[in-house]
Amino acid sequence: MSIRRFESSARMSQAVVANGVVYLAGQVADDTTADVEGQTRQVLAEIDRLLALVGTDKRRILSANIYLADIGDFAAMNRAWEAWVASDAKPARATIEAKLAAPKYRVEVQVTALAGEASSATPADVLETIMLRSSATKLVEPAPDRAQLETLLRAAVRAPDHGRLAPWRFAVLQGEARARLGEAMAEVLRQRTPDVAAEVLDGERRKALRAPVVIAVAVSPQPLPKIPEVEQIAAVAAGIENLILAAHALGFGSMWKTGPAAYNPIVNRALGFEPTDRILGFVYLGTAVTRAPVRAAEIDAVTRWL
After folding, report:
1. Half-sphere exposure of 256 toward its Cβ, with a 13 Å CA cutoff?
2. What domains appear along the chain, each with residue ranges and CATH number?
3. Model confidence over 47-80: pLDDT tens digits?
4. Cα separation, 50 vs 104, whole angstroms
5. Could you give the C-alpha distances from 177 to 128, 184, 251, in angstroms and in order?
6. Three-class SS string for 44-64?
């Protein structure tokens, strides 16, 4: 992951951009003779300047921490804040009474924002994500939220797709919905092995609970002579890889699992797929507690240079 620092001094940087997030240092007023409302306006103008410097703006602010020397100035500060904040993109915010660096300062504001498109991922970031990704071996909460899951799915459907057929299908399982997958997996095992022990069936059910979120990914192939099924399968597999890399870029871990249940119509039906859909994998998502070692990227034995 590349880290970019802006307006750095011997002590600190005024802005740092890493992994698509902008972190600003706490900002205070230059003209400290102004009242708290005037100081707040100065601080917010400086935040605008710094956000523009790194290629983003106040509509992408995620959170703000406001420190007041006197909480009695809350209303005056808010007059400047409410005149400035984007009406359709208000961030999470906290206001705290605190002793500031000098008595002349009445207010200090620190914000965190999403980087703009021009300042988010660099080529080095993309390569680092690819080269350092490895499968998680244990996943826990927190998992991606709804907005992050939608981002992952959008990344998946950006995969190469011959004929623009959009052959991918997704079933997102969270909370109790994972039990539906677990029951279907256990039923597949029971039908394959009628005398299977109850504890083994319980273990099969628990596989669906290995992560806070499971995304079942299937291909919905179309019978087209010019675009054979193998190419449609390849498009969906590429989509799964996009999803996994996007999860890694957002700081989450993942596991791509299959097994006999993935190819059984019982699971297809349980997850609402069509009879002709074919599941290519279950992507388990969450926060990685442990990961598999990063595999060496050996190419000599598998490459011919012609």
Report:
1. 19
2. 3-119 (3.30.1330.40), 127-291 (3.40.109.10)
3. 999 998 888 889 999 999 999 999 999 999 999 9
4. 23
5. 34, 12, 24
6. HHHHHHHHHHCCCCHHHEEEE
Which amino acid is it at 37?
E
| Alpha carbon distance 184, 133 (integer Å) | 30
- Strands of the sheet with 3-8, listed across from one edge: 3-8, 13-18, 21-24, 107-114, 61-68, 92-97
Return the DSSP state at 25: P
First to last CA, the chain: 34
Residue range 118-158, pLDDT digits in tens: 444 566 678 878 988 899 999 999 899 998 899 999 999 99
pLDDT digits 0-9 by tens, 185-218: 999 999 999 999 999 999 999 999 999 999 999 9
Residues 182, 207 contacting (CB under 8 angstroms):
yes
Please state, as a whole number, how many other Cβ atoms lie within 10 Å of the Cβ of residue 231: 17
Q: Which two tokens stand for residue 50?
A: 């710094």
Residue 21 has which token pair?
């997030």
Tell me the residue ranges of DSSP E strands in 220-292: 253-257, 278-291
Cα separations in angstroms, 118 against 55, 57, 122, 123: 6, 12, 9, 12
Q: Which amino acid is at 82?
A: E
* C-alpha dihedral sign at 50, 56, 57, 61: negative
What's the full length of the chain, in residues? 306
- Take residue 263 and report the two structure tokens written for it: 């190819």
